[in-house]
């Protein structure tokens, strides 16, 4: 029979502890909250009052329920008040010696059947549990902040945790209206182990001046649909907290990708902790404020003071989904578009594909019939490269093979007029290789649209060491005119989005490969705990495992980071022909 946790102790009434207390009390649990002194308790009461008042104002809690919730919470400054608790959840600062001291004292005070849980986000539950005489009754219960809102709770079992304790805690978490995932005891658990490697990588990109903070954050928001960019998220979490989590992960994993970026330590030493101090990667209008204000690092428009080239006629090379999407985007915006295909049949089919997409937009009320007809009338299908001679901008969108792309640029170099901007949509190949195939490398730039180009707002503007400033400014101006969000970066494998996204996806595959957690739990952890639109395995199956493997190999060959080496499981699935949704099987089976 599942044991009932009717009275629950909370040790530590900071933001997280107060949030856990509120969640428990709102579901009818009697809570005993303990902190070091009356000042700390008053601060915790303030958190609870503010949060429940906000819930009432937002219509999520009645005044009567708010009063009943707060009445279920009692307060004490001594752990002795927890003698009768069925479950005690520790939420003190992330220091192993402090947690060990709390658990040793609780072990002396509480009855032999009381279950102990730590809300640690990265420390070893095993190491905490050995400071008690009941390590079998010690688990991790990692809630996510803000606790009243976020549904995920990671339930961490050690090698000695009793199975019935895990079962009972999972049932309790479900009774709170939360989503539990059960995992083993390793640094970062699921969500933080995957999230913080990605955040650390973003800091290293910023540290090396590869891209601005604004462009890094915009890239992940508009390119992946993430609710926040990595640097803004670090400011919200707190740079000191992030450093502690990364440092703990590194000492367990010895993975260089978990070693905190030196910039984090420098910012912490300077007191730049993020929102809580009023300044981190961004500057805020006060401590704990979410409102970003301009500062000395706020960039001016990239093209300010730089002349741009006139673009009226645009060539697009290719007939695939990306090419036809780009054709549609330009044609709808009023540009004359020349669509070059390898045969007149392919050209006609590509124009028909654009027409079908435009028709769909009309049926959904997003485009008028007149605008559809006008857009189609602006598209000229051609077969010869020479028909691109009078284009001001030519966008190559052919197969992601370097030899094919170089051949296209050699042909463009021969036929295009002087001053024409030549762009490649490659997602991971070196833009400079395309530029080197021409006698005009200064005119070549990367314009990495995201699929479907008609919908996705992001375009990565990739500048090589040879690209002229006016070409970069022209590319940016065109993107803005198309209603896109341009972000600027250098010519490195993966640019911004893929360079940040695919190591994270690879880490998820390695986690699955190690039997640490199942795919469903990993996906749920990232969607529920981190508010991501898709879990890593859902996304890999959509992108295609073969495409993902190719990108990961490119990243590994460029950076030679051991952590970027593609997971063997991914290699095996691709060899077996399990490529994701397009073949009916990938990490999941879509054929049933």
From TrEMBL:
For whether the record's keyword set contains Oxidoreductase, the answer is: yes
GO MF terms on file? 3-hydroxybutyryl-CoA dehydrogenase activity; NAD+ binding
Q: What is the lineage of its organism?
A: Bacteria, Bacillati, Actinomycetota, Actinomycetes, Pseudonocardiales
- Which GO terms fall under biological process for this protein? fatty acid beta-oxidation
This protein's pathway reads: Lipid metabolism; butanoate metabolism
Q: Which Gene3D superfamilies match?
A: N-(1-d-carboxylethyl)-l-norvaline Dehydrogenase, domain 2 (1.10.1040.10), NAD(P)-binding Rossmann-like Domain (3.40.50.720)
- State the protein's name: 3-hydroxybutyryl-CoA dehydrogenase
Domain named 3-hydroxyacyl-CoA dehydrogenase C-terminal: residues? 188-284, 494-590
Q: Which species is listed as the source?
A: Saccharothrix ecbatanensis
EC annotation from Swiss-Prot or TrEMBL: 1.1.1.157
Coiled coil (UniProt feature)? none
Which residue intervals define the domain 3-hydroxyacyl-CoA dehydrogenase NAD binding in the entry? 7-185, 314-491
Q: What residue stretch is flagged as signal peptide? A: none
Q: Which family does it belong to?
A: Belongs to the 3-hydroxyacyl-CoA dehydrogenase family.
Q: What keywords are annotated for this sequence in UniProt?
A: Oxidoreductase
Q: By its UniProt entry, which InterPro entries does this protein fall under? A: 3-OHacyl-CoA_DH_NAD-bd, 3HC_DH_C, 6-PGluconate_DH-like_C_sf, 6PGD_dom2, NAD(P)-bd_dom_sf
């Amino acid at each position: 029979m599942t044991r009932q946790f009717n009275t629950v102790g909370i040790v530590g009434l900071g933001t997280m502890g107060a949030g856990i207390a509120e969640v428990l009390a709102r579901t009818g649990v009697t809570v005993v909250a303990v902190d070091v002194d009356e000042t700390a308790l008053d601060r915790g009461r303030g958190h609870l009052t503010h949060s429940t008042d906000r819930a009432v104002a937002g219509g999520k809690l009645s005044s009567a329920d708010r009063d009943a919730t707060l009445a279920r919470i009692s307060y004490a400054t001594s752990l002795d008040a927890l003698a009768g608790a069925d479950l005690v959840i520790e939420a003190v600062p992330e220091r192993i010696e402090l947690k060990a001291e709390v658990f040793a004292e609780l072990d002396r005070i509480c009855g032999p059947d009381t279950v102990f849980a730590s809300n640690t986000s990265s420390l070893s539950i095993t190491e905490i549990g050995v400071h008690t005489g009941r390590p079998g009754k010690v688990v991790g219960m990692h809630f996510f902040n803000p606790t009243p809102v976020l549904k995920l709770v990671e339930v961490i079992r050690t090698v000695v945790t009793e199975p019935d304790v895990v079962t009972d805690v999972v049932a309790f978490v479900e009774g709170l209206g939360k989503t539990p995932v059960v995992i083993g005891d390793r640094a970062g658990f699921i969500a933080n182990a995957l999230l913080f490697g990605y955040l650390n990588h973003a800091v290293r990109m910023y540290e090396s001046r590869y891209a601005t903070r604004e462009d890094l954050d915009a890239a992940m928001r508009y390119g992946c649909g993430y609710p926040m960019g990595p640097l803004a998220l670090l400011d919200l979490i707190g740079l000191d907290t992030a450093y502690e989590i990364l440092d703990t992960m590194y000492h367990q994993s010895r993975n260089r990708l978990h070693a905190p970026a030196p910039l984090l330590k420098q910012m912490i030493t300077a007191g730049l902790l993020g929102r809580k101090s009023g300044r981190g990667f961004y500057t805020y209008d006060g401590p704990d404020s979410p409102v970003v204000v301009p500062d000395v690092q706020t960039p001016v428009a990239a093209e300010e003071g730089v002349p741009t080239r006139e673009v009226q006629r645009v060539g697009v090379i290719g007939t695939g989904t990306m090419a036809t999407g780009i054709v549609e985007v330009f044609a709808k915006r009023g540009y004359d578009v020349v669509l070059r295909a390898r045969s007149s049949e392919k050209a006609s089919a590509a124009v028909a594909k654009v027409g079908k997409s435009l028709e769909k937009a009309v049926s959904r009320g997003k485009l008028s019939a007149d605008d559809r007809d006008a857009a189609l009338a602006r598209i000229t299908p051609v077969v010869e490269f020479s028909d691109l001679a009078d284009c001001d901008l030519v966008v190559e969108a052919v197969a992601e093979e370097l030899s094919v792309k170089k051949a296209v640029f050699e042909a463009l170099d021969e036929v295009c007029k002087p001053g024409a901007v030549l762009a490649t949509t490659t997602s991971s190949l070196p833009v400079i290789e395309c530029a080197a195939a021409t006698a005009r490398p200064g005119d070549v730039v990367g314009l990495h649209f995201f699929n479907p180009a008609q919908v996705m707002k992001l375009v990565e503007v990739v500048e090589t060491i040879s690209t002229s400033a006016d070409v970069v400014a022209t590319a940016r101006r065109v993107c803005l005119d198309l209603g896109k969000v341009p972000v600027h970066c250098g010519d490195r494998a993966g640019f911004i989005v893929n360079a940040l996204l695919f190591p994270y996806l690879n880490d998820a595959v390695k986690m699955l490969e190690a039997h640490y957690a199942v795919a469903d739990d990993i996906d749920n952890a990232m969607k529920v705990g981190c508010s991501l639109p898709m879990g890593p395995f859902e996304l890999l199956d959509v992108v295609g495992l073969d495409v993902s493997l190719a990108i990961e190999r490119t990243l590994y060959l460029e950076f030679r980071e051991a952590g970027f080496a593609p997971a063997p499981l991914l290699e095996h699935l691709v060899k077996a022909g399990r490529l994701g949704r397009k073949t009916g099987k990938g990490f999941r089976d879509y054929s049933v």
